[in-house]
Specification:
The chain is an alpha+beta fold and about 425 residues long. The protein contains 16 helices and 9 strands. Strand 7 and strand 8 form a beta hairpin. The relative contact order is 0.14.
């Protein structure tokens, strides 16, 4: 056995391990699996405590993700004020992280994408404000909620017009804005946002009733004629003096999870490992009934399953380009190690070691819903019993409806 060669190899690899420094942060997805299982089992106190611990003492590279998960759990648990505080921290941190660190990029090229500070997918950043809007709306703070939905739409428009990203706006944000305007008695503003949501979705289904009604109320005769052709069943009958509305929003299912996929990177890279979103199973059949009436199936207004795939696919070219840069750097380091030790074996081992730790980043905001499903009812003012079949279970609630107002009910199901 050639002891000098082995000594040179171990010295080179030891130096390599010191440079990489990987593994110290651990795997966020694996580390928080139990908290997610508690969350998806409606054991919210257990999930709250777990994610709060991650926020307090978890690795800084995962801090944004921990804040987003904690904020979502608090939102689902109905702890709206606490959720607002946590998501505000996440929003501020997300903006502070919205830049590229040269030193971090250099480290990641020779270590792993999983060592990168998590900055969030574009749609995840938008969802922070969307959830904030829903938190404020449920608390009756409509002005604050409208601020958040405007931020969603402004950010999305900037992505489309300035950054040339092929994204579609989140229709749920426009629809929520319309509901808030309608609830405040601003018919013109409400119509504009309902119409925008209709254009984004293409067909609002049963959610189109207020759009048709407000087209007549605001005397938009041309728009009303077009809408009557699109929705012949919808009658533009004004709300009665003792009539109100119930809007039920189901945050349904589980957003896709990132897994390791593969992509042909061309003759230089060959087959490379990349992250890809994989849909998860969840109970998709939902129904809502009021006062023992016939159950109504909600309309899916925004599918984060679709949005996640679109946003990640847009980033694929940059991910492959980073892999090409990492390959070149790894090859250079390996060649240097081989030359320094005068051993081709050391160069090969160095390259293999560098390649082995360079894994795709599989972190994502996994506590988000897969879909935003909505259903609405026109009912007499007063108390009503609501039955919701979602997530494979039945929930019954008592809802108070005020005249001319929209009562918003937000429920999480899995």
């Amino acid at each position: 056995m050639h002891f000098p060669l082995l000594l040179r190899q171990s010295t080179a690899l030891g130096a390599l391990c010191a440079v990489l420094g990987t593994g110290c942060a651990g795997d966020y997805i694996a580390r928080t699996r139990g908290y997610r299982h508690a969350y998806e089992g409606y054991r919210y106190p257990e999930a709250e405590q777990g994610f709060a611990g991650e926020v307090a003492s978890g690795p800084q590279i995962d801090h944004l993700l921990a804040l987003m998960d904690q904020g979502m759990v608090l939102h689902a648990a109905g702890k709206l004020e606490e959720s607002i505080q946590v998501l505000a921290q996440a929003d501020k941190l997300s903006q502070n992280l919205d830049f590229t660190s040269v030193s971090e990029e250099a480290k990641v090229l020779i270590s792993s994408e999983r060592e990168r500070v998590y900055r969030g997918e574009d749609f995840e950043k938008l969802m922070i404000s969307t959830l904030q809007a829903l938190n404020y709306a449920q608390l009756g703070k409509d002005e604050d909620a409208l601020v958040e939905v405007r931020r969603v739409n402004q950010r999305m428009q900037r992505m489309i017009s300035e950054e040339k990203k092929p994204y579609e706006q989140l229709a749920v944000a426009r629809y929520v804005a319309a509901v808030l305007w309608e609830d405040q008695g601003h018919a013109d503003d409400a119509f504009i946002d309902y119409a925008a949501a209709n254009q984004l979705v293409g067909n609002l289904g049963s959610l189109a009733e207020p759009l048709v009604r407000l087209a007549k109320e605001t005397q938009r005769d041309t728009a009303l004629a077009e809408l009557r052709r699109q929705y012949p069943w919808a009658q533009p009958r004004p709300l009665g003096p003792d009539e109100g509305q119930i809007l039920v929003m189901l945050e349904a299912g589980k957003v896709p999870v990132k897994t390791t996929g593969s992509r042909n990177g061309g003759p230089q890279l060959g087959i490379i490992a990349i992250p890809e979103f994989k849909d998860r199973p969840w109970f998709r059949d939902s129904q809502v009934a009021i006062d023992g009436g016939a159950p109504v199936r909600p309309t899916t207004l925004t599918s984060l399953e679709q949005v996640a795939h679109i946003h990640l696919e847009y980033r694929m070219d940059s991910l492959i380009a980073r892999q090409a840069g990492a390959l070149a750097l790894r090859a250079g380091i390996a060649a240097g190690a081989g030359a320094a030790t005068k051993s081709e074996a050391v160069g090969i081992l160095t390259f293999l070691a560098l390649s082995a730790v360079n894994q795709p980043d599989l972190r994502s905001w996994m506590s988000l819903p897969a879909e935003f499903q909505l259903v609405r009812f026109r009912v007499p003012a007063g108390a009503h019993r609501m039955a919701v079949i979602a997530g494979g279970g039945l929930r019954e609630l008592e809802i108070q409806v005020r005249p001319k107002r929209v009562t918003l009910v937000v429920l999480r199901s899995y």
